[in-house]
C-alpha cells in the first residue's frame, strides 16, 4: 500500500528526475569552463563583502589552483571534493557586511545559500531566480535586507526552505509564492510586511511564520478586510439559504407530524405506543437504542420506523 504512487508523487518524481537531468547537464556542459566560473563566483563574493573577523580572508585563498581547492574553503560545499563546483554556500554568523553578493550567479549549479545572522543590507535582487535557478534552500534571515520580497522567487521552482525573517522587508508577500509546491519552511516574521499572505500547500507553514509584521492577513492568520467583505456577502447568502431550508424542513416536519398525528390518533387503542411516539419526538438521540432494546416488539418497532422515515 505504501509503495503505491499517486499522481502527486509522479509529478514530484518527474520534477526530481528533471532536476537531476538538468543538474547533470549543467555540470557536464560547463565542466570544460566550470572551474573559472565557480572560482570567479567565490572571488566576487569575497571581494563584495566586508569581513571584519577575517573568516573569508583567512580561508578563501585563491593562490592554489588544485582541482577542488575551493571545496576546503570555510562555508563552501562542492558537488564532489575534487571538483571546483559549488553545491552549497553557508556563511552564517560571520559578521559579514555589504549588499547581497551579486557574483553568486556564477556559482551556476548551487542549490543552497545561507547568509543568515550577518549584517547584510540593501535589497534582495529582483532577478534572484535567474541567479539561483536550482536553489532549494535560501536563508537570508537575521540581516538588514530591505525593500520588497522579489516576485521572481516564485520562479525558484525547487525551493523547500525560504527564510527571510528578522530583516527590514516592506510591502506585501508575492501571492505567487504559494505556487511553490515543495515549500516546507517559510518564515518572514519580524519584518515590516503587510497585506495578504500566500496560500501554501504545506500545513507546516503556520501563524509563527508571519509574526511581528505591520499587518499581514489571510492564510493561517485572520482573514483580510477586503476578503471579509466578500465572505460576509457569502455568509449572508448562506444564512439566507440556510434560513429558507430550515423553514422548509420545519414546515415539512410540522406537516409530517400533523398528518402522523392523525395516524397515531387512529392507534389510540395502543396507548403505550402513543407514549412512545411522544417520547421519541422529544428525544432524537435514543432512537437507535430504542430499536435495539425493543427489537422483539415488532408492532412498536414499526411505529418508530414510520415516525422516522
Ligand atoms: C558570470 O555570470 C554572468 C551571468 O550569467 C556571465 O555573463 C559571465 O560571463 C560570468 N562570468 C564568468 C567569469 O564566468
Ligand atoms: C587578510 O589576511 C592577510 C594575511 O592572511 C592580512 O595580511 C590582511 O591584512 C588581511 N586583510 C584584511 C582586509 O584584513
Ligand atoms: C592546495 O590545496 C590542496 C588541497 O586543498 C592542498 O593539498 C595543497 O597543500 C595546497 N597547496 C598550497 C600551495 O597551498
Ligand atoms: C518567471 O518565469 C517566467 C517563465 O520563464 C517568465 O516569463 C517570468 O518573467 C518570470 N518572472 C519573474 C518575476 O522573473
UniProtKB/TrEMBL annotation:
<feature type="domain" description="Leucine-rich repeat-containing N-terminal plant-type">
    <location>
        <begin position="37"/>
        <end position="79"/>
    </location>
</feature>
<keyword id="KW-0732">Signal</keyword>
<keyword id="KW-0677">Repeat</keyword>
<keyword id="KW-0472">Membrane</keyword>
<dbReference type="InterPro" id="IPR001611">
    <property type="entry name" value="Leu-rich_rpt"/>
</dbReference>
<feature type="signal peptide">
    <location>
        <begin position="1"/>
        <end position="34"/>
    </location>
</feature>
<dbReference type="Pfam" id="PF00560">
    <property type="entry name" value="LRR_1"/>
</dbReference>
<keyword id="KW-1133">Transmembrane helix</keyword>
<dbReference type="InterPro" id="IPR013210">
    <property type="entry name" value="LRR_N_plant-typ"/>
</dbReference>
<protein>
    <recommendedName>
        <fullName>Leucine-rich repeat-containing N-terminal plant-type domain-containing protein</fullName>
    </recommendedName>
</protein>
<comment type="similarity">
    <text>Belongs to the polygalacturonase-inhibiting protein family.</text>
</comment>
<dbReference type="Pfam" id="PF08263">
    <property type="entry name" value="LRRNT_2"/>
</dbReference>
<keyword id="KW-0964">Secreted</keyword>
<keyword id="KW-0134">Cell wall</keyword>
<feature type="transmembrane region" description="Helical">
    <location>
        <begin position="233"/>
        <end position="258"/>
    </location>
</feature>
<dbReference type="InterPro" id="IPR032675">
    <property type="entry name" value="LRR_dom_sf"/>
</dbReference>
<keyword id="KW-0812">Transmembrane</keyword>
<keyword id="KW-0433">Leucine-rich repeat</keyword>
<dbReference type="GO" id="GO:0016020">
    <property type="term" value="C:membrane"/>
</dbReference>
Amino acid at each position: 500500500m505504501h509503495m503505491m504512487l499517486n499522481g502527486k508523487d509522479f509529478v514530484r518524481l518527474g520534477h526530481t528526475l528533471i532536476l537531476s537531468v538538468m543538474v547533470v547537464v549543467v555540470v557536464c556542459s560547463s565542466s570544460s569552463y566550470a572551474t573559472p566560473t565557480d572560482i570567479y563566483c567565490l572571488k566576487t563574493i569575497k571581494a563584495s563583502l566586508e569581513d571584519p573577523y577575517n573568516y573569508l580572508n583567512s580561508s578563501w585563498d585563491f593562490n592554489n589552483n588544485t582541482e577542488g581547492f575551493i571545496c576546503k574553503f570555510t562555508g563552501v560545499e562542492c558537488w564532489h571534493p575534487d571538483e571546483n563546483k559549488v553545491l552549497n554556500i553557508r556563511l552564517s554568523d560571520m559578521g559579514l557586511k555589504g549588499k547581497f553578493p551579486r557574483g553568486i550567479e556564477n556559482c551556476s549549479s548551487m542549490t543552497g545559500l545561507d547568509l543568515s545572522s550577518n549584517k547584510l543590507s540593501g535589497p534582495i535582487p529582483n532577478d534572484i531566480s535567474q541567479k539561483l535557478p536550482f536553489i532549494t534552500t535560501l536563508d537570508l534571515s537575521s540581516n538588514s535586507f530591505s525593500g520588497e520580497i522579489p516576485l521572481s522567487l516564485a520562479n525558484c521552482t525547487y525551493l523547500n526552505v525560504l527564510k527571510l525573517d528578522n530583516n527590514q522587508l516592506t510591502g506585501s508577500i508575492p501571492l505567487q509564492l504559494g505556487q511553490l509546491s515543495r515549500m516546507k519552511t517559510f518564515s518572514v516574521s519580524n519584518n515590516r510586511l503587510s497585506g495578504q499572505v500566500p496560500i501554501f500547500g504545506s500545513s507546516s507553514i503556520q501563524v509563527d511564520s508571519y509574526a511581528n509584521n505591520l499587518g499581514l492577513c489571510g492564510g493561517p492568520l485572520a482573514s483580510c478586510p477586503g476578503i471579509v467583505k466578500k465572505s460576509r456577502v457569502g455568509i449572508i447568502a448562506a444564512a439566507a439559504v440556510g434560513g429558507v431550508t430550515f423553514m422548509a424542513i420545519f414546515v415539512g416536519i410540522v406537516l409530517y407530524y400533523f398528518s402522523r398525528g392523525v395516524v397515531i390518533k387512529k392507534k389510540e387503542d395502543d396507548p403505550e405506543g402513543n407514549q412512545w411516539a411522544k417520547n421519541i419526538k422529544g428525544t432524537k438521540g435514543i432512537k437507535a437504542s430504542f430499536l435495539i432494546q425493543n427489537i422483539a416488539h415488532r408492532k412498536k418497532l414499526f411505529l418508530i420506523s414510520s415516525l422516522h422515515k
